[in-house]
Each structure stands twice: as structure tokens, then as C-alpha cells.
Amino acid sequence: MRIGVLTAGGDAPGLNAAIRAIGEMALRDGHEVIGIANGWAGLVGDFQGTALTANELRGVIGQGGTLLGTARFNLDKPAGGRECVLAAIEEHLDALVAIGGDGTHRISSWLAERGAPVVGVPKTLDNDLPGTDYCIGFDTAISIVAESLDRLHTTAASHHRVIVVETMGRSTGWVAALGGLAGGADLIVIPEFPVTMDEIVEHINRRRSAGLVYSIIVVAEGINLAILGGVETEELSNEGVGGVRHATRGVGHFVAAKIEEQGGFEVRTTVLGHLQRGGSPTAHDRIFATRVGAAAYEAVIAEEFGMIPVIRGDDVVLAPLATVAVGQRKVPREIYDLCAVFF
Ligand code: F6P
């Protein structure tokens, strides 16, 4: 079989571990593995697939990024991109494993509905694909957030300052909530459970009255600015062209300026940005990516197309691609309440 593999959307630590699992298992069984360059872009226009060798797959489990390259590529602008991808799969491949997040799997699912032999792998640093308890990259991201908060605590405490830390998380607050919980954040603000500026300032005041002269406030980049007294951007997007990227709205700086203005505190801001996506994956991400990569390969061999291996509890199970392609998995009240115990 000629098995294509691509990574689409934002990169995440652990992608190479998944590519390695699929590739090494396929080569072991005598199949050809075609690495598609730069996500869907590699299947539009000239075919950008090359056969991967065992040598290229060796030693990559601990490497961040993706050896295939990736891109935020909009197949609908201009129209006709999806049809090009369908035709390229038909002409060049017997199966395709698409590793990506919600945008990627909206396409994978559309292709599978039209009979294309596609299997998915769940990846998004935001960890909010519906239908799976875990996505490649998340554990590394929250480990980086936790380590950053440890570091910021000591300087915040020394200077008696408030530090606002902005994390990734476009539509949901998984990175902020669990990274913040692990790093001992003093308040976490996420899209699922909005708070007002008055509530934020009151909280810092309460801490000060209790003798706590510093505070670390973690905010997810996707929180709604209008609720905080700002002006919300109409069109938000990270997929392909058009729209305003969430990070450019500057919610961290906005909240910091408001705290200074309303509370009279000395405030600093740290935007963690792409540090959360760079570098070596944690052991957890390597193992998870290997498990879902292996399961995706087995689904291809069993011709279980239109499916994606997901994590439910401790198990890897196959689910229809369509189930991860719509909406987001939100942080549940129970997790947010646990974070709030330590505010
Ligand atoms: O979707 C994952 C994510 O890391 C978001 O948290 C973030 O908003 C976005 O990607 C950033 O994307 P880009 O690297 O294209 O700016």
C-alpha cells in the first residue's frame, strides 16, 4: 500500500512521535510511506509527497515540530481546494493519515464522506477536540506553563507585583486551567467561566488584605474582551486566510492595564505564545502520540476509513471522524472549581 501521512494546522510537540509510529509500522510490514509536505497544501497543485525511509524516521521521537512541515491552508479560499485533494489522494495514494485539529478533521471528514480512504489522528495543543480526552501536544504545553509560573512566582513575590500570564487556547481554557493549576496560579480566567474586571481586582485586593503581596493571574488568549469592558473583534480565525488571530488581541496586556488602572497595583505581563508549542515533547506526549499513531496505522490496514483513534479514559478507541469535526470540548465546571479552591 502507498500510505500518505500529513500534519496540518499549528504544529505541536509529539507530531514526530506519531509520524514515526505510523511510518515504522508501515515499513516493517512492507508498505510505502509517503510524507506529504506542509499539510493540505502538499496535495493541491503539484503533489508534494516523497517516500520516507527508515533513516528519516529514526531518532525523531523526542523532536518537537513536524518533520513533514505544516501550514494553515484554507482549501475553500479560493474554492475547489477540497476537490483537488480528493483527486490527489485518488491518483497518488491508497490511504491517507491526516494528523490535525478541528480544521483538519472537518476536511478529513468531508473527504471520507466522499469515499476517500482517510484516517485521522487527534492533535491540538488547545486539547479541545470533541470526542477525545486528550490531544497531542497538550501535556507539553501545560508543563511549559507550569514551569513558567514557577519562575514568575519568585520574581512576582520579590517585587510584590501582579503578573498577568497569557496562554494559548483560542476557544477553550484547557491550557490556562490545567497549566495554571499545576503552576499554582492565583486566579485563572478562561472563556468557559467569564469574570468581570471588578471581580479580578477584588480578588487581588482580597489576597493583599490577607497579606499576600503578589498575584499570578493566568488568562487564556481566547477570553471575551467585551465582558472585561473592552471591544471585541468581530471575526476571529486561525485557519487559513482572513480573520484576526486570537493572540493579536492582546488580552494579557489588556487585563494588566485594567488591573493597574482600577486597582493601583504594579503589574507586568508575560505572553507565553509559541514557547508553549516549541521544543521537545514530554514523555506523556511521546507515548500518547505513539499509541494513536499506531492505532491509526492499524485502522488503515483494517480499512476502517473515516475513523480516528481517540483516548477515552485510558483506552484508545476508534471514533468516526465526523464526531471530532464539530464544536469544542469545554473545560468542565468540576475542573474549574478545583482550580478555584486554590485562588
Ligand atoms: O490551535 C492551536 C494554537 O496553538 C492556538 O492556541 C493558537 O491560537 C494558535 O494555534 C496559534 O496559531 P499560529 O501559530 O498560526 O499563530
Q: Can you put this structure into words, describing what you see?
A:
By secondary structure, the protein is an alpha/beta fold. The chain has two domains: 2-137 and 281-325, Rossmann fold; 138-278, Rossmann fold (3-Layer(aba) Sandwich). Helices cover 37% and strands 17% of the residues. The strands form three sheets. The protein has a five-stranded mixed beta sheet, with helices on both faces. Strands 7-8-6-9 form a four-stranded parallel beta sheet, with helices on both faces. A two-stranded antiparallel sheet has the order 10-11. Helix 5 packs across helix 6. The longest helix has 22 residues, at 138-159. Bound molecules: 6-O-phosphono-beta-D-fructofuranose (F6P). 6-O-phosphono-beta-D-fructofuranose (F6P) binds at residues 10, 72, 101, 124-126, 168-170, 221, 238, 245-247, 277.
> What distance lies between the first and last C-alpha atoms, to the nearest angstrom?
55 Å
Shape: elongated
The total number of structural domains is 2
List the helices and strands in order: EHEEHHEHEHEHEHEHEHEEH
Q: What's the level 1 CATH class of the largest domain?
A: Alpha Beta
How would you write the strand order of the largest sheet?
A: 3-2-1-4-5
Determine the CATH topology of the largest domain. Answer: Rossmann fold
List keywords for this structure.
343 residues; alpha/beta; Rossmann fold; 5-stranded mixed beta sheet; 4-stranded parallel beta sheet; 10 helices; 17% strand; binds 6-O-phosphono-beta-D-fructofuranose
